[in-house]
Amino acid sequence: MGKSGRVLVLDDEKIVCDRLTEHFSKKGLEVEAFTDSQQAIDRIASQDFDVIITDLKMKGPTGMDVVHFVRRNRPGAELIVITGYASIDTAREAEYSGVYKFITKPFKMNNLAKSVMKAVHKAQTRKGR
Amino acid sequence: MSIWNKIFSSSHPGEVHEHGIRYRLERFQEIVRRNNRVLERIADASEKLGGEYIFDVQYLHDFVDRLGDDVRAIALALNELTGNRYQELLRIVSSINDNLRAVLESRTVAPESEIVLRLDRIGTEHADVTGSKMARLGEIQRILGLTTMPGVVVTASACTQFLESAGLEPLITAMRNTNGEELFELAGELRNQIIHADVQKWLQKKLRRSVRAISKRFHTQYLSVRSSAIGEDEDLVFAGQYLTELGVRPEEICDAYRKVVASLYDRHVMEYRIRHSLPPADGLMAVGIQVLLQPKCSGIIYTLDPTNPDRDVILVSSGFSLGASVVDGSAPVDRFIIDRNPPHHILESHIAEKTTECVINESGGTIVREIEPERRKIPTLEPGQLQNLCRQALKIERHMRCAQDIEWAMDEKGRIFILQSRQLKVTHIEQNNLNIMGPISHEVLLKDLGEVACRGVGFGRVWIADNREENAEDNEMPDHAVLVSRTASPKLAALLPRASALLTDYGTTTGHLATVAREYRIPAVVDTGAASRILEDGRMVTVDTEENMVYSGKVQELIKKQLLQASSYEDKKEFRMLRRLLRNIAILNLSDPTSPDFKAQNCRTYHDIIRFAHEIAVQELATGNWLRSNRRCNAVFRLDIDIPIDLVIIDLGGGIKATPRKTVVTSQHILSRPLTALLAGMTLEGVWKTEPADMDLGGFMSSATRTTALTGPEAARPEQNVAIVSNDYLNMSLKLGYHFNLVDCLMSDNAEDNFIYFRFAGGVTELLRRSRRALLLREILEHYDFVVEGKGDLVIARLKFLDLTRMQKKLEMIGRLIGFTRQLDIHLRSDDLVRHYIQEFLAGSEMPSSS
Fold first, then answer.
1. 3-state secondary structure B591-639
2. Cα–Cα dist B789/B796, whole Å
3. Strand B481-485 to B444-447 pairing
4. Which class would CATH give A6-124?
5. Which side of chain B, N or C, has fewer Cβ within a 10 Å radius?
6. Contact (CB<8Å) A108/B572
7. Is B191 helix (H, G, I), strand (E, B) or coil?
8. What pLDDT does residue B298 have?
């Protein structure tokens, strides 16, 4: 069965990475997950992804650092921000940075999956795939 | 002059002298408000166990913080309301909070429990006190009815007390603050001290008494003493890391207990903990003490081939006598490959030349001896015994919802004993391959309808609960049915342990039924809107709530995937933490307000505390005693109404239309939504029979001697019928003759906040007739979807999360029920009449049960 999109998951909580990897893989997506934000940035620099899902508050580069890096270097990718520390300000900042979706933990996996599938479609349409 | 007359005799009805009253009412309302919030938070957190949500440790911290604030505030408010009568509640809140913190910090703390529990009375819900190994064994016996070696579990609570009284805490604390070789040296010292420590006299007594009882009852001289560590990962618990002592004689029980506890600090255990980022110095041991019989043979059964799960086979290995050589692979054993499908044909047999066997040593312990040459090539198991073993193993697998790795033994009579059961580990490569699955060719019956309450896969024949007539032959749900119902009625909860999946047309993921489904890990979807209509009774279906699909027939690939992946989320650290937190929070031990044990000091969980506080607060308000010190109050009215209830209304604000200097109001003045709805039901034509009921001699004699006290140790008699109201709130105490109704409810615009609490007790006749009336009330209230409890003549019913329209209907029904049952106990001369009056009430119903 072919893969229908490339997704990167970044969250310093291993459980989030594990569960999203499992869930999205079942949906036929190709998933890479990272708990270390610098490693994720390095990977984004070398590999094109359709969707990048990132936690907001992490040690080292923060989620917003990742958002800015992606905007500068991978403008074709869609961004989804997840966090347990939601605030209106960060949500607004994320919106202004062109984030596709802002999701607060705890959240339903299927809801995130629907957003991811739409974001993959949007990214691939933009890239002309 | 009664307090009520004093209030009404005030020369200045509008004058405020109400600080005390208002303050106490505010405390009461605070208890109610926070009580509901705590229940919501618990329901919300329990919903997260269903696997549908992503959450992290921070969520668990927030949950514990907020819940703790609410429960502490409830305990404080109850004390303010009752003149500090329940101060011990605050101590209990702190103690529970300490336990919750320990869970969040991955420390192992034993919840308060009995010192010794019988194995046949425990289940997985006891894992925190008995360890998961023994808890599962108990469940296999208690719920599945399979045979295990009889015995008891010495709980983690005993271990804590043993270590404390042996003065070992300082050494354990020192270990927490050290590492490297020094840690291992301290562990060695600790092990030594445990082995030589005195077991306290009371614990010795309990151990010896338990052992005597086991030996006497089962005529055995030898015991097995098994480790069952608390709160640690399965590999550590099950992989032979801890000590198991076999062939222990009753007089050696204390030695064996100490040795098993000491194995918590064996070097290889410490190394394992360090390797897996578990706190090396923490650990608690429950200890199983079981009968040890000399088995004919024993071994291991895998319900799937872990290296090739696509094969539909079961693997069995078996050796003579005790199973040591099978478990540790130290000697040749028989191996069998068997078809998973009935009748379980034997596909391959490999009969080994078995040279040695492990047996009980007469002087205690075990020895390995040579097997006589003529016995070495005899198969350990006959085909019929193998098939029986496979049936039992698959029964466990279906209950545990994942492939199993089971240790078993068989005696000379061919009786099988389950020794332990755990999830089968699949190789890593296979695990990864499971995520890639081809399209499913089965017909899709339901897709993406409703809300997933618990993730998983289940299959079976559809059994539609609504189709069942009472006393009909097909009333009994078959085991492993897919339970389908129009409503998510709490009554169905009793069926869930035997169901393989649950689908309802209506209901919420935080409702009682969904919570019970998660408790038993039954795949469940609620609020599908159509399941009971679309699915045919008796049809074989596969329910996949991971993807929210229902397929026609048995989808083998999904079922097998579930068997291998059941714990994909359940075994994650955060899920284990949440389960442990909820065991300290959500379990309700004080469910019966009439029990002599319904006391503050018996509260063990947050749920106990809020239930206790709410019950006491409601009763406190109902007595009116709290008004004695407050002689005057504005906004107190007497209701002028056609029915004889002599009701006084206290308006907290917005409940009564402004009527300057008036103390008597009519129903036209009532603005309180719940009171209006209740009175609408009470005043329906024909509901309020005013003629006196005929009473026979039995009822008359009983009425002559009966006191009017309410049932229950804490209950007291209300002095006056009172309704405390606001625009959306009602607390009404109604004493009608010899029985007492209490309605406490909130009817706001927000359905999530709304609730009804209805309490009924007492009566004029002897207990049997009052009990009949209580039975009638229970059945009617359950029919209208209330969660009902109580015993004797006491009925307590609860319902929540209803929108305004439904609240209106339910309260009208309660009003009608209050009138209908007013003197009904006198008429209930036989059990048959209960059914008759239930039908009569329901026939007069103006709303369907699902409303």
1. CCCCCCCCCHHHCCCHHHHHHHHHHHHHHHHHHCHHHCCCCCCCCEEEE
2. 5
3. unpaired
4. alpha beta
5. N
6. no
7. helix
8. 94
Q: What is the DSSP string of B245-265?
A: EEEE-GGGHHHHHHHHHHGGG
Rounded CA gap, A121 and A124, in Å? 5
Same domain, B245 and B339: no
Whether the CB of B572 is below 8 Å from some CB of chain A: the reply is: yes
Closest in B53, B435, B572 to A106, CB measured = B53
Contact B59 A84 (CB under 8 A): yes
Provide, as residue numbers in chain B, all residues whose Cβ is less than 8 Å from the Cβ of A18.
572
Nearest Cα of chain B lies from the Cα of A109 at a distance, in angstroms, of 6
CB contact B569 to A (< 8 Å): yes
Interface of A with B in 43-82 (CB under 8 A): 82
Which chain A residue lies closest to B48 (C-alpha atoms)? A106
Which CATH number does the domain housing residue B485 bear?
3.50.30.10
Q: Of A56, A106, A61, A58, which is closest to residue A81 (Cα–Cα)? A: A56
Give dist(CA B407, CA B327) in Å, integer.
Answer: 8
- B124 and B91 housed in the same domain: no
Whole-number pLDDT of residue B423: 85
Most distant pair of Cα atoms in chain B: their distance:
108
Strands of the A30-34 sheet, one edge to the other:
A30-34, A6-10, A51-55, A78-83, A101-104
Question: Å from A28 to nearest chain B CA?
Answer: 8
What is residue B126's predicted lDDT score, i.e. its pLDDT? 84
The gap from C-alpha B41 to its chain's centroid, in whole angstroms, comes to 16
Question: Is B564 in a helix, a strand, or coil?
Answer: helix
**Cβ–Cβ gap A106/B569 under 8 Å:** no
Looking at the fold, whether B482 and B518 belong to one and the same domain comes out as yes
Say if the Cβ atoms of A15 and B568 lie within 8 Å. no
Which domain covers residue B806, as residue numbers?
630-843
- What is the total count of domains within chain B? 5
Q: What is the ipTM of this complex?
A: 0.84
pLDDT digits (tens, 9 = 90+) for A22-52: 888 878 899 999 999 999 999 999 999 999 9
User: Do A120 and A24 meet the contact criterion of CB atoms below 8 Å apart?
Assistant: no
Give the whole-angstrom CA distance, residue B617 versus residue B715: 11
A3 and B CB contact within 8 Å: no
Q: How many helices (H) and strands (E) does chain B have?
A: 26, 31
Label each residue of B685-740 as H, E or C.
CCCCCCCCCCCCHHHHHHHHHCCCCCCCCCCCCCCCEEEEEECCEEEEEEEECCEE
The chain-wide mean pLDDT, for chain B, equals 82
Question: Is any Cβ of chain B less than 8 angstroms from the Cβ of A2?
Answer: no
Q: What is the gyration radius of the CA atoms in chain A, in angstroms?
A: 13
Kindly give the residue spans of alpha helices, DSSP state H, lying in B276-382: 324-328
Cβ–Cβ gap B568/A22 under 8 Å: yes
Q: Does A32 touch chain B (CB under 8 A)?
A: no
Q: At what angle do helices B767-783 and B804-820 cross, to 10 degrees?
A: 160
